[in-house]
Amino acid sequence: MKSLSALLFACLGAGQVMAAADLVEGDLPSGAASLHYWVQGSGAPVVMLSGGPGFASYLHPVMAELAKSGHQAIMLDQRGTGRSKVTPMDATTINADLLVEDLEVLRKHLGLAHWSVLGHSWGGMLAMRYGIAHPDRTDALLLVGSGPMAWTQEFQRYFSDNIHSRLLPSDLDSEAYWNDPERRKADPERANLESLRAILPGYFYNRKDGLAFHDGLSAPGAKSDAMSRYTMKQVAKQDLTEGMQAFGQPVLLLMGRQDPVGETTQYRIRDANRGAQLVFIEKSGHFPWIEQPVAFYGAVNGFLDGSVANARKHEQVK
Prior knowledge:
The chain has a single domain (4-309), classed as Alpha/Beta hydrolase fold, catalytic domain (Rossmann fold, 3-Layer(aba) Sandwich), CATH 3.40.50. The chain has helices spanning 60-68, 96-109, 122-133, 153-164, 169-178, 181-186, 188-199, 207-212, 225-235, 241-246, 263-272, 288-291, 293-310; strands at 24-30, 33-40, 44-49, 71-76, 85-86, 115-120, 138-144, 251-256, 277-281. Strands 1, 2, 3, 4, 5, 6, 7, 8 and 9 form a nine-stranded mixed β-sheet that branches. Helix 2 (96-109) crosses helix 3 (122-133) and helix 5 (169-178) packs antiparallel against helix 7 (188-199). The chain is α/β, with parallel strands linked by helices.
């Protein structure tokens, strides 16, 4: 069976349509990369980081809702994914440190002195890295179903077990079929897509929601295995515990009660950062904005409104 590190917190909504009068998108250079980004709404800025690593942005619905709630919602395709291209694509141009630098490039480009950072899944791990590196630029961290501070074999084991314990025999058969080495070699992009589709119901509390989400997995180029591979080489060696212990800005840990990432991961982050707020959303898996949108947006907006009220005034970078 293919390692789940290549499918970490898999999710995709790249085919979702964004149509709003106040939606702005653009491209900007960052070293060897060209970053594609979106901005919607006005108010206190929040940048959103999708999971993977290796997936193009899929938080379009969250972006639209936060914009409607009075926030400036910002999103980008991480380098090497979606419309953010990088040449060449290798270990010198793809790593977690460069992903953090990209966020700084985007923040400065938008003329923002500070912002909050919302990360889902792998995006939560990247958000922690950014906050630790740039606490003076981070008003708050919102970690939604975040991955761990340290990528351990223990985590890989129980994360995989939690997913597979929820799958039907037909799901497991499909996963095994598409993980066949010869089949993967013949058509790696389709094999990755189909094996992910097979296990996707294991990420949800409601199997029907997981099956309905299959339709969002059809966009070509929505998952970059190369980006995932190069990023994970570095991430597998990281331990963010000390950095999170020292991080002094507000932190929200938001997780579906049935998220296969597991409660242990969230408790460990909270233990490292004693000021963090931990909120569980009942009857929800890894995608709470899909399964329990009222509870999800209530928690996010309530936290952001409280954090922004106590945060520094946002000023334009001179």
